[in-house]
Amino acid sequence: MSEHIIDNPVVSTLLNRRSIRKFKNEAVDADTVATLETVAQHAASSQFLNDWSAIRVTDPEVKAKLAEIGHQDYIATAPLLYVFVLDEHRNSRIAAGKGVDVTADEYTLTSSYRYSQAQNDAVLALHAMETAAYGLGLGCVILGSLLNDVPALIELLELPERTYPVLGLAIGKPDQDPEVKPRMPRSMQFFENAYPADDENEDAFRADLAAFDETLHRYYDLREADRPVDAFSDQIAAVGVDQGVLNKPVLSPSEAQGFRLDR
Q1: In what order do the strands lie in the sheet containing 139-143?
Q2: Domain boundaries, the chain
Q3: Average pLDDT of every residue of the chain
Q4: Rounded CA gap, 60 and 83, in Å?
Q5: Where would you find the membrane-spanning parts of this chain (predicted)?
Q6: Is residue 52 within 8 Å of residue 125, measured between CB atoms?
Q7: Which of 199, 200, 242, 255 is deepest in the core (most CB within 10 A)?
């Protein structure tokens, strides 16, 4: 039986999302900002602890420093710019106000479990904001590049103990119209009941990978004919041995922020 993608405005918005890195020099109005921030607050939250926050960056000097950290000039020109952080600082203040000893070894909101769940919550909130922005005709790009230098980012944004940066999000009216990037076959990412053993689907896996390599290579060739890009599998292999900005430690700066990732 053939399958068809159901069409509705939300599905269409998600299927047509593209990273926009060039924005028109137009401010995002206050009503839109309020809408995007309220939508982010309505994202799912583990145990409803609301353990994330977002910093809206409006100072041109701070934007410029973020662009330096991310090695991406367009960060400095984003009309609307956020840095989402996992935030157990606020909850520690609340707990302390209720008489909880937040410095005790038994205190749980600085554990690895809460760290990972708070990080998830921040990502869910960011994704909700991003989707809403696309639905309103804006463009976005998620900024993992801000994690190139976490200590510098923490210092720049004056992040207190028990917070940690997760991702940035730049938003504005698009000033470019890139093609939608191809996705790998569903068979490579969706499995039924259990993760398949490597030898269970090796032939099909290799065939799907070869087809995806070709599809993505063609996409990059059409987009940047003067700057060839390696096939997907070659990119994965290269990243696997990269010792540069893609290999930044998390444990040390997290511990410096007051988290206990060993428990």
Answers
A1: 52-56, 80-87, 163-172, 139-143
A2: 9-178, 186-229
A3: 91
A4: 15
A5: none
A6: yes
A7: 255
